[in-house]
Amino acid sequence: MGFMALQKCPIANCHLLGWQLEASFHETMEENEHPYTLINVIGGTNGVYEDHVEFLEKHFKLITMKEFTENKQDLSHKIKAIFMWFHKPVVDRDLLQSLPNLKVIANCGVGVDHLDLKLISSFGVKVANTPFAVSNPTADLGMALMLASARRIVEGHQIAVSPDTKCFMADWLGEEINGATLGIIGMGTIGYKVAQRARAFEMNILYHNRNRRNEADEQAVGAVYCPKLEDLLQGSDFVILSVNLSPQTQKLIGRKELELMKPTATLINISRGQVVDQDALVNALKNGVIKAAALDVTYPEPLPRDHALLHLKNVIITPHLGSATSKARHLMMRNMVESILAGVSGLPVPNEVHV
Ligand SMILES: O=CC(=O)O
Questions:
Q1: pLDDT band at 25 (very low <50, low <70, confident <90, very high)
Q2: Helices in 151-205 by DSSP H: which ranges?
Q3: Pocket flag, ligand 1, residue 134 (CB < 6 Å)
Q4: Which residues contact 245 (CB under 8 A, 6 or more apart)?
Q5: How confident is the model at residue 33 (pLDDT cuts 50, 70, 90)?
Q6: 188 CB within 6 A, ligand 1
Q7: Most CB atoms within 10 A, among 20, 27, 160, 326?
Q8: Sheet of 181-185: strands edge to edge?
């Protein structure tokens, strides 16, 4: 059944890895031994696919947080892995202390800012994430937000469907991204994939990153390194944020940075809401300091319904859709399953996140 579930998965190039791990896992498993996995919620409506649940259930007894909380004494020694789907369950010192045989936490998505990696590692537990599954769809979404904002697609839709619309306006204009300058803050895998896409749209590309990319990478997308963030902010028509959230990137874009941007510029955020000082952003958008913002992430998510960002005409907000494609979600699940199988078998954990 597990292998059938693998075959159903559309991500063909992962079959072998999954199968190998499955086979080696069996070799290390005692007859009838079942490592337990703590899983927060299962069921299609929560985005956990039934075929992957079947696959997990072949190897693990799945325990929900509710079951665990109700029967801690019996279960705590048996649990070897945590399947963390969209930041749940919350992993804190109390939970780690109550799971002495925990080996691995498989986290969906790339961001691990919700995990205390040092604390987890001090318990001898490994963490894995799913960076490759999310990078293409997140970069796509960055482009989609940039285009939607530049071409006023959301406003256009509202006009097209409004019962008050009698005729379409010839003077209702947006901007072209072709020939414009895109500043990419955070040139990791996602940032680089944004650059590849922007290159195809014939944009000029500036980037700012902790480390400069090698010359071949820069040349392949025509990206110019800006060691100083100010230079990127001053020179860009669109600024996209694709950094990890860390103490260094918290409120990286505040009032001072927004004031350095062109009054015609648009800020796009596909990283984490906390990278932007939202009060400063609201002021900048209200006062014409920058032209517009397109945000896939906010702080908190969702924003309170009376939050100013929800009521500004020059803002587009999507509900954290970066990895929200069926292809990405399947691949995330598969990668998590692979990491759990490896972690409980004492094999090197694919996509391990190091402290
Ligand atoms: O937010 C999405 C992720 O962390 O992958």
A1: very low
A2: 153-161, 189-200
A3: yes
A4: 111, 113, 271, 272, 274, 275
A5: low
A6: no
A7: 20
A8: 223-225, 204-208, 181-185, 238-241, 266-269, 292-295, 315-317
pLDDT of residue 45: 54
Question: What are phi and psi for residue 347, nearest 5 degrees?
Answer: -90, 160
Catalytic residue among 52, 320, 329, 330: 320
Nearest CA to ligand 1 atom 5: 109
pTM of the complete model beyond 0.90: no
Q: Dihedral of CA 273/252/259/186: which sign?
A: negative
Inter-residue contact 52 to 76 (CB < 8 Å): no
The two structure tokens encoding residue 43:
């069921």
- CA neighbor of 239 nearest in space, from 303, 290, 178, 176: 290
Tell me if residue 114 is catalytic. no
Tell whether ligand 1 has an atom less than 6 A from the beta carbon of residue 111.
yes
Tokens of 230: 């100010």
Give me the catalytic one of 152, 213, 272, 329: 272
* Whether 329 is catalytic: no
In percent, how much of the chain has pLDDT > 90?
A: 74
Q: Is the dihedral of CA 18, 112, 268, 252 positive or negative?
A: negative
Ligand 1 atom at minimal distance to the Cα of residue 111: 4
Q: Could you give the CA distance from residue 145 to residue 152 in angstroms, rounded to a whole number?
A: 10
Please tell me if the CB atom of residue 110 comes closer than 6 angstroms to any atom of ligand 1.
yes
Q: How much distance in Å is there from the Cα of 322 to the middle of ligand 1?
A: 7
Active site residue 301: yes
CB 206 within 8 A of CB 196: no
Distance from the alpha carbon of residue 153 to the mean position of ligand 1, in angstroms:
25
Asked whether 345 lines ligand 1 (CB < 6 A), one says no
- Choice from 114, 141, 323 to test ligand 1 binding pocket (greatest atom count within 8 A of CB): 323
Q: How far is it, in rounded angstroms, from Cα 148 to Cα 142?
A: 10
d(CA 114, CA 103): 19
Dihedrals phi, psi of 82, to nearest 5 degrees: -120, 130
